[in-house]
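User: I'm putting together a teaching handout on how sequence relates to shape, and I'd like one worked example. Could you take Glucosylceramidase from Dinoponera quadriceps, show the sequence you're using, and then write out its predicted structure as tokens right after it?

Assistant: Happy to. First the sequence, then the structure tokens directly below it.
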Amino acid sequence: MQRKEGVGGGREGDRARNHTETGSSWREAIGERKQERCHRIGNCMFFTLPGMMRAVILLLIAASAAVRGDDCIRRKVEYGIVCVCNSTYCDYVPDVQVQENQYVTYTSTESGQRLNISIGNFSNGYSSCDITITVDTSKAFQEIFGFGGAMTDAAALNIRNLREPTQQKLIEAYYGAKGSRYTFCRIPMAGTDFSTRPYTYADTPGDLTLSNFSLVEEDNYKIGYLHDMMKIMPNRDDMKIFTTSWSAPAWMKDTNKITWGALKPEYYQLYADYIRKFFDAYKEKDIDIWGMTPGNEPLDGYFPIFPFNAMKWTATTAANFCTKNLQPTLSEAGYEPTYMALDDQRFFIPEILDIMFKSDKAKELFTGTAYHWYANKLFSLSRLDKLHNEYPNKFILMTEACTGSSLLEREKVKLGSWERGEKYLQDIIENMLHWVSGWVDWNLALDKHGMPNWAKNYVDSPIIVMPENDEFYKQPMYYALYHVSKFVPRNSTRISSEFSYKNCFEDYSNVKAVAFCTNEGIVIVIMNKDNIPHNICIQDDAMSGKICLQQPEKSFTTLIYRAPQECGKSTI
């Protein structure tokens, strides 16, 4: 056999407002989701249990009473299906406590299922499977830090365009116990392209004492939402806020431009003081910064025609600034953030780290590497393996991703695009299989045009705000992230998941999976990009029997079963 690691209800009145289905009546849509379906594959049987029937059976099966989830309100849009949320309603799924020799699956499909719950049993009978995924809980890899998104100016302004109850629904969709359970939030230090204007906190030329340093109105919105997030998180202490600056004030740079150029050496200490003032200002608002990078995408600052905020750093200048100016300044003020190197594309890995870490002080200071997903297809995932092998004690974090960013993509926002959800989940799975400890999205929310962006660099977002109806859309990208972030909390561990195939001559490259040991059990995330379903078996020698299921065409599945006691104890 060929083996390959990891590849291959209720309240209808509230729902009805502003939620007209396209192509079918509202009651037809509700009725469709209340059908009970039974599937048999080989000798394995499992049930799909939507609606009220699902709740009744979960009460009988689960170790503790399961709360009935609220179904997605589907709306057909130009490129697929979105789920609609407003001030009184937003879909969620319940937590299911599985018993010994049971498993639960949550499945989303291009055709419109969103986290449909099925419960089944391990089986000792014969089953014919296209793909077998062998899970080995004794082979443990990296610790998982979590998932999240960026509270940019654009995200804050779009959220603010909703009524307050709807704003809270959106925040809950990401950070609440019933939502994605995000634990990361990236906060830009001053302006980015996703602001309404180019700015920093000290734009008065020659202000050598930074007496005119000041946060802006957008910071007040972002700080308010950060507090809202932490209030509803299952564990407030899990929140990790990290920051980066796109550019120093233009007058501190050798080009006098916010869009390109390097920081003048004579302003290194002044810029360190500028960053300290940012930490102070957020601390005064009870916001603690967990981590930071020297700057966003420093390569951009090399190009005179670059269209938005950027500042050049070399590996050497970044290392020198952080070790000689920034760290001493922040430490003296009582701040000891986690320092992450790079914050640029994967093609710099690991070479730029090799240069930075020629400085022993820099090698000690930077405990992690941050990188972005753009142009990932052009550069092998083996770069991440090489980085881990060279610096095994330093974590790797993916800190920015979005779709619609390519110059070749005419439509920046593609409402309901399943393909864009696939891009997200494929990137998450593949990167987790290569030592990445967390995955952080870009804008938490944008409007239907991918705005605002002062440089007209519009892109897509997992949540699109529709203020005219006081509602927001959860796109397939949202659910792609949810399938991992909801079920793989901080301090989980990736474990071995090897593929084998019934027919080695068939192409199963569109089926991908990754497995984790969590405090709730074994979690396996599976994606099928093919237009046909596949029969998949899960084999775990620590369990009695196996799991067999049919992975629908164009689908995401999260599968959970109880972990053996020794799960994740041995580390590769």
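A couple of points you could highlight for students: The chain has 13 helices and 25 strands. The radius of gyration is 24 Å.
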